[in-house]
Design a protein that fits this description.
By secondary structure, the chain is an alpha+beta fold. Helix content is 41%, strand content 22%. It is built from nine helices and seven strands, in the order H-E-H-E-H-H-H-H-H-E-E-H-E-E-E-H. The chain has a three-stranded antiparallel beta sheet with strand order 5-6-7. It has a two-stranded antiparallel ribbon with strand order 1-2. A two-stranded antiparallel sheet has the order 3-4. It is globular, with a radius of gyration of 16 Å.
Length: 199
């Protein structure tokens, strides 16, 4: 889900409607969100670039919501934007209800659709894709490491994103490039963080 959130944000930047140095005021909703966080504080102003790295490297749900609200006014309106982009990409078995990937009754996707999204992200936004291989990010004096273990195990791996919820289990959308050829892999419903890496 956060890959689509980033895809939408990158598109807004490319269109000139958003800048990396723009400052986002953190709402109480973003601050209070559960799960992985980059630990932004309510009513503080945070640069878009920091929020992107907090979302990509640290998997911050708070960062995802802050970006969604800044762009669309509400997370629900942003989810509609996500779904519009998904339709344009041909992700016909996907529906987003939020910007974080937290479970929802009509929040779903497939391995094929995720591979489609990953390919589009890499192809359309090469200038930002390098953030998916950043090993750690520090914000507010809190350093968190990228959860994608492939980045330290395989020098050809350059992304992309882990995921976990109780209903989805451990997931990994990964990519590597060798001899000029890129491969994208999708692992869903893995029983452990280790299994999703070695599967």
């Amino acid at each position: 889900t956060k890959i689509m959130t980033a895809y939408v944000v990158f598109g807004e930047i490319l269109a000139g409607r958003l800048g990396l140095d723009d400052e986002v005021t953190v709402s109480e909703k973003a601050w209070r969100t559960e799960g992985s966080r980059m630990f932004i504080e309510v009513n503080t102003r945070v640069r878009v670039e920091d929020l992107l790295q907090g979302m990509i490297v640290q998997s911050g749900n708070d960062a995802s919501i802050a970006l969604a609200e800044f762009i669309a006014g509400s997370e629900a309106t942003f989810a509609a934007l996500m779904n519009a982009h998904a339709a344009e990409l041909g992700m016909n078995s996907t529906n987003f209800e939020n910007s974080t990937g937290l479970p929802g009754p009509q929040h779903y996707t497939t391995a094929r659709d995720l591979a489609t999204l990953a390919s589009a992200l890499i192809r359309e936004f090469p200038e930002y894709y390098h953030w998916y291989s950043v090993p750690e990010f520090t914000y507010n004096d809190i350093t968190q490491h990228n959860r994608n273990r492939l980045l330290s195990r395989d020098p050809s791996a350059d992304g992309i994103k882990t995921g976990w919820t109780e209903s989805a289990d451990f997931c990994l959308l990964s990519s590597a490039i060798r001899d000029g050829r890129r491969l994208i892999s999708v692992v869903l419903k893995s029983p452990s963080a280790n299994q999703r890496t070695v599967a």
